[in-house]
């Protein structure tokens, strides 16, 4: 009995729509992504795909499509962070390829 109630409750939660992003959330996500991209540019590690996602986010923000803007900005943030991580990793990983 309790198991079926919990199962029904869980299924009801899954059917609820996702909460839409607000303008402030989209703008904050875009600002964070732009800051991370600046860090990637400073490290000379920027990826072109990050720029494409930033452009998508800016266009969606201008079109007042907060969900799409936040999603694109979040993707750009992830890409920018990973590009910096890759650059930092490559600073030391070359040593493993050198024969001694």
In DSSP terms (H or I, runs of 4 or more residues), the helix count works out at 4
Number of strands: 0
Low-confidence stretches: none
The string of secondary-structure elements, in order, is HHHH
Classification by helices and strands: mainly alpha
Task: Report the average pLDDT across residues.
Answer: 86
> What is the C-alpha radius of gyration, as a whole number of Å?
20 Å
Bin the strand percentage: under 5%
Largest sheet features: none
Q: State the separation between the terminal residues, measured CA to CA.
A: 68 Å
- Approximate shape: elongated
Helix content: over 70%
Could you describe the 3D structure shown?
The chain has four helices and no strands. The chain has helices spanning 2-15, 23-42, 48-62, 66-97. The longest helix has 32 residues, at 66-97. The radius of gyration is 20 Å and the shape is elongated.
Summary tags:
single chain; 100 residues; mainly alpha
In a nutshell, what does this entry contain?
The protein is mainly α.
Topology overview:
Layout: H1 2-15, H2 23-42, H3 48-62, H4 66-97
Helix pairs in contact: 2-3, 2-4, 3-4
């Amino acid at each position: 009995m309790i198991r079926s109630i919990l199962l029904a409750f869980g299924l009801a939660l899954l059917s609820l729509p996702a909460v839409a992003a607000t303008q402030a959330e989209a703008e904050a996500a875009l600002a964070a992504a732009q800051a991370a991209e600046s860090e990637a540019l400073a490290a000379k590690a920027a990826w072109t795909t990050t720029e494409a996602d930033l452009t998508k986010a800016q266009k969606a923000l201008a079109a007042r499509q907060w969900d799409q803007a936040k999603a694109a900005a979040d993707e750009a943030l992830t890409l920018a962070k990973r590009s910096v991580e890759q650059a930092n990793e490559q600073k030391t990983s070359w040593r493993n390829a050198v024969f001694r």
